[in-house]
Design goal:
The protein is mainly alpha-helical and 155 residues long. Helices cover 47% and strands 3% of the residues. The chain has one domain. A hairpin with a 4-residue loop joins strand 1 and strand 2.
Length: 155
Amino acid sequence: MNLLAAIVCALSLGPADATRLACRLERWPDCGEVIAILRVESRGVAVGVHTRHARRVRGAVFWRRAVEAGLLHPERCGRHQQADGGEDWGIRGPHGLAAAYSVHVLGDCVGPESADVPLLSAVMTIRRLRVLRDRYGLRTAGGRAEAWRRGVGRG
């Protein structure tokens, strides 16, 4: 199989298989933790923008905060500019990522729709879990799960 065929195959995997592959590629020791996030956030189904949350924070709020934090750079990256009122930057993809807070882990100029691709969503999830573990000292899956739901530093 040539490289292009392997990439296409990997990018076309369903959420659970993509998550297992990402765990191997990223060398994340507890794939069950990432699968649990997948089950809670989307029931293991490939989804785009999440719209059925009762207390949903609007994408524009995530976008503004991510720009203020230096995670997005709309002044130099067209992919980081707001479209449709910024709703694309909210919670999306099979792992329930805030796109505005997550795409930077894939590169400097990545758009919000990348969170909808199961393999990329899984990689972003693992990289964000690694930050929770290494930067914030959250060593247990339970501690990281709480931070995932509420944010770091909220009780």
